[in-house]
Amino acid sequence: MRTRVFTGMTRSPIVLLAPFVVVLAAGCGSGGGSSGTGSGSSGSASTGGAYAPPAAKTNTTTAPATAAPSGPTIKLAADPSGGLAFTSRTLTAKAGKVTIVMSNPQSSGVPHGIGVQGQGVDKDGPVVAPGSTSRIQVTLKPGKYEYYCPVPAHKAAGMTGTLTVQ
Description:
Largest sheet: 5 strands, mixed
Distance between the termini: 99 Å
Structural class: mainly beta
C-alpha cells in the first residue's frame, strides 16, 4: 500500500487564488452611482469552480460643457420627506437665459425632475433618482411661468410652483 504525503506545493491553483478572488470581488461593489440593477459580485458562482477574471472596466468620459451657463441659476429642491412638493412654491428671476437646478434629496425616496411651462416655453429636465439633480436651461421673457415635476401624476398632485420673471 502506498501512502501519499501532501505538501503545500501540490495544491490546486484555484485554492491558491481563492484569497485574491475574495479581495477582487470585494472591490467590485457598486460605485455609489448605481441605479440598483443588481450586478453585485455573485457572478462567478456559476463558473463551475473555475477562476474567471473580473471583466475589464471601460472608462467613459463626458464631453466638457461648451460654455458656462450664462444668466442666473435658480436652485430648489424636492420635498425631503417624500411629499409631492418642492421646498419653494414661488421663484423669481431676471429675463434672459435662466438655469434651474432641482436637487432631489436622497431622503425623498421618489424620482423627480424639473420642468417649465408658459409664454411659449415648454421644457422638461431629466427625471432623476433620489440623491441626484435635474437641470434645465431656458430663455425667459418677463412674465409668469409654471414650474413643475414632469413625473407622470406629480404635477396633477400639486408638485408645481410659480416662476415670476422680471
